[in-house]
Amino acid sequence: MRKLVYYVAVSLDGYIAGPQDEVEFYPIGEDMMGWFGEAMPDTVPTHVREMIGMPIDTPNRHFDTVLMGRGSYEPGLAAGTDSPFNHLKQYVFSRTLAPVENPQVEVVSGDAVELVRRLKKEEGLDIWLCGGADLAGQLLGEIDQLIIKSYPVLAGAGQPMIVGNFDPTLFKVAQRREFANGTQVTWFDRI
């Protein structure tokens, strides 16, 4: 059965973006860029791959599907692409976004939990929950694994990692990797 994996960057105080969706304050080191390209190529936007020297047709290793809220999808639109992860099937959750004329992108206005349960039963690689906080809150009961890129920076305010009902959910550390600038990537499995 496929897993739903919430893979996201977060500040020390729990924010995935600033108040205006800023993410430029996260310190990126060279050792991190190389590692992400090799270990998590699926999560590198298609339109960014050539800019960082990654072949555009680099095979997916972990994911073949990505789920995004509108806020996570809009940076791709701002960059001029309606399919930021064209190497993945993309589901964009929005009640206001018009359908997209790209077979890789499906705008969903319905129940996120129902869709995820259906997707988990299908054959394929795991499902990446890219963000945002509202969508993560809706899907908390379906998240099987967290991969948290914890950056050594305090944001002070912004978009939290998850918004939803009080629902304590235990995870255990499965693996951790640290980079030269102090950023850590930690894999947590649901208990």
Automatic annotation (TrEMBL):
Record GO biological process: riboflavin biosynthetic process
The name this protein goes by in its record: Dihydrofolate reductase
Species, as recorded: Nocardia terrae
InterPro entries: DHFR-like_dom_sf, RibDG_C, Riboflavin_Biosynth_HTPR
Pfam families: RibD_C (PF01872)
Example GO molecular function: 5-amino-6-(5-phosphoribosylamino)uracil reductase activity
Domain Bacterial bifunctional deaminase-reductase C-terminal, chain residue ranges per copy: 3-184
